[in-house]
Amino acid sequence: MKKKITWLLILVISFLLFSCPKRYENRLLDVAQLKNNKKSWEVLGIKDYSFSYSFGTCMPEYVVGHVEVKNGIGKVSFEGIPHHIPDKDDPKEKKYYITTIEEAFDNILSEYLDYKRRLDNKEIERLYYHNVEYDENYFFIKDLSFQTYIPIPDMTGQCGYSFQIQDFKKL
Questions:
Q1: Please, which residues have CB within 8 angstroms of residue 131's CB and are 6 or more apart in sequence?
Q2: What's the rounded Cα separation, in Å, for the pair 24 and 2?
Q3: Phi/psi of residue 29, each to 5°?
Q4: How far apart are CA 95 and CA 31, in angstroms?
């Protein structure tokens, strides 16, 4: 009986060890798909539209913006009680301040390329993009999440965010 329990325990531990994802496994953003979707969006030529977007960090809906675009020029408002209103002049908060779908594409690509450079330079140990979903009709990013691991002594060092576009409407 004791042997059976020992073997069962070894089997369960082995299963758990081999079925869990590796801690430092990378899953990179498909930049070609991102660029192709941006081109497909631009070909549509939609110049009047509205949408809402949100960024979640360790705090869900950290930034929630409502965008209205007329003749290709967009304005964003942060109505309600958002957790954070981004400073459009702060380069670190650029990704949170979006006034058009094109800016969403550009900000995500810029952020990704910065993190990829940091991964290549060994400044971060992991870059993991998941839940990347594009709108089937309009090609913009509907959902995207990423995580990274930054080696910080005596700290966890994990960070990341999620990004969603909701309520897209042609005007």
A1: 143, 144, 145, 162
A2: 36
A3: -70, 140
A4: 17
pTM as predicted: 0.79
SS3 track for 1-41: CHHHHHHHHHHHHHHHHHHCCCCCCCECCCHHHHHHHHHHH
Asked if residues 113 and 95 have their Cβ atoms less than 8 Å apart, the reply is no
Please report where in the chains the tokens 């539209």 appear, as a residue.
Answer: 49
Query: Do residues 105 and 144 touch, judged by C-beta distance below 8 A?
Result: no
Distance CA 123, CA 107 (A): 21
Residue 42 is given by DSSP the state H
Tokens of 81: 């009680």
CB 108 within 8 A of CB 120: no
| Alpha-carbon span 97 to 104, nearest angstrom | 9
**144's tokens:** 């995207």
Q: If you average pLDDT over each of 44-48, 63-67, 94-98, which comes out highest?
A: 44-48
Percent of the chain with pLDDT over 90: 45
- Across 9-18, 95-104, 142-151, the highest mean pLDDT is recorded for 95-104
